[in-house]
Please model this.
Amino acid sequence: MSRNGCRVLYLDGYTVPDPKAGVPSSDAIGYGITASAAIRDGLAALGLDVVRPRLDAAPADPGGPDHRLSWILANYRSVLRELVEDPPDVIFCFHIFSVFPVEIRRMLLDLGLSIPIVGYTHGSHWDPTDTFRFETYPGMEVLDLANLHVLDRVLLVSEYMRTTLRSTIGAFNAPLAEHVDAHAAVVGLPLAVDRIDACRTSRRFPRPTVVFNHAPVSSKNPELFARVMARVLPHQDVAVLITRDFAPWQPGGEAIAELAARFPEQVILGRDLPLDEYFAALWAADLQVSTATHESLGVSTLEAMYTGNCCILPRVGSYPEICDGHPDVLYEPGEGPLEERLRWFLEHPEDRRAVAFDLQRLSARFHPRVVVQKIAAEVLSLAVGGP
Model:
């Protein structure tokens, strides 16, 4: 370990300079911005020397594919420069499908360096429900597995992810699955509580408001949400806030646009709210709904929980885990069960507030001081030569 403590070369995931020009994932909005900053700041506050690579200037076109690819190449060049000039004690990859650990491991081997690599996987080709991976990067399952295999510590966001990887990789190659699992640690992701708390407001929306704060991707199933709300809105004094922008060609784009056209007084289109406005809106809202068919953790739901919303979640992925199996929160996937649960909470505000209180308490498990302590323990263990 270096003389001044553990020196961590921290590699962020890609985030676009202009969300309007970006891709429909958390590269633009979401955990890629908020959680990564909370980890960096938290590790530094615990005394680790967190350094980030010095990147070359990016092309002028912000957010396009060439900008993303140029950024990735700049990271590799910067990592190489750091390894040659001032090698760190640990390399930390916030998103292993952004800057590939396989390439970093190759650098280390060619340079004759022995430096542990820690990395998060926030989704996986080895999760059969992760349709975004299959649709955007088809045929890259083995590369995804190679990235997992070369890590000295695989950081996972949920027990769901651990169980899923163990099962699916095990069906492909049992020894590889055992190796990945032996190097895995479930640590969760931290919420950006300082920023969320700074946006706290006593303002409430004029009528009970349902938030849909999910990305325009097929695995979030926005069409189902739109169909259910189209049946609920005519009979309830309720508003809907869609926080993300849904372009017509994206999953759910046409359905969301039609919903807003039919109910212009009740549907609010946030069109990628700036973060501070987004957090303020969560504090002012009442309910959050997910219709997802895939969820590795659910940061948008955890943010809604932390800000005092009653969440209605399908019994899929990590949702039972983050709500501790709360029977009033979970519904069996489908339009009927969701509509029934939503109508119940709209008609029973006391029950809604009680569930929101329960969920707010549960969200404390994802406070940075809890999560970053777990991450720091894994990093320091590797820095001193731990397994």
About this structure: Residues 193-364 form a domain with the Rossmann fold fold (CATH 3.40.50.2000). The chain has two domains: 7-190+367-383, 193-364. The radius of gyration is 21 Å. Residues 19-28 have pLDDT under 50 and may be disordered.
